Amino acid sequence: GNLAEMLFMLLLEHGVLVMRPSIVRHMDSVIDMLICSSVVSSLSFLGVIAVDRYITIFYALRYHSIMTLQRAVVTMASVWLASTVSSTVLITYYRSNTILLCLIGFFLFMLVLMLVLYIHMFALARHHLHSISSQQKPPTAHRGGSLKGA
């Protein structure tokens, strides 16, 4: 994305491409929208992966009934659609403080969501580690190595 924009600008500066200023502004907006959309969708998919792993761990027996192929396709399409729409709005109204707050809020929300889910999964893994080690007769000296598995 950034490489394409830089290449586009270099071609314009050196006279290889000749375009009206209005077309250049539109092309710049499209490239910015693609970059913004890729960042928002990447962050969103990281959140979706965290939720999927959470469901896998805490609802293992019902995972295939919860996460059907149809739900997976709808989730992926929704992330791409929401990323495209939101990035279009972000680029169109980029000077607005409200848009900047929304973007920061989205980033923080996704960060907190992933942290909470992964901390909860780690806590469950530690709980299972302690349960397994307490069921063994002699205390094991490999506790540190087992913690790596958690």
TrEMBL record:
Locations listed in the record: Cell membrane
InterPro entries: GPCR_Rhodpsn (IPR000276), GPCR_Rhodpsn_7TM (IPR017452), Melcrt_ACTH_rcpt (IPR001671), MSH_rcpt (IPR000761)
Main location: membrane
Membrane-spanning ranges: 30-51, 72-92, 98-119
UniProt membrane topology term: Multi-pass membrane protein
A cellular component term, taken from the record's GO annotations: plasma membrane
Record has Glycoprotein as a keyword: yes
Ranges where the G-protein coupled receptors family 1 profile domain occurs: 41-150
Annotated Pfam families: 7tm_1
Keyword Chloroplast attached: no
Keywords: Cell membrane, G-protein coupled receptor, Glycoprotein, Membrane, Receptor, Transducer, Transmembrane, Transmembrane helix
GO MF assignments: melanocyte-stimulating hormone receptor activity
Family from the record: Belongs to the G-protein coupled receptor 1 family.
Primary role: Receptor for MSH (alpha, beta and gamma) and ACTH. The activity of this receptor is mediated by G proteins which activate adenylate cyclase.
Protein name: Melanocyte-stimulating hormone receptor
Organism per entry: Phylloscopus fuscatus
Gene: MC1R
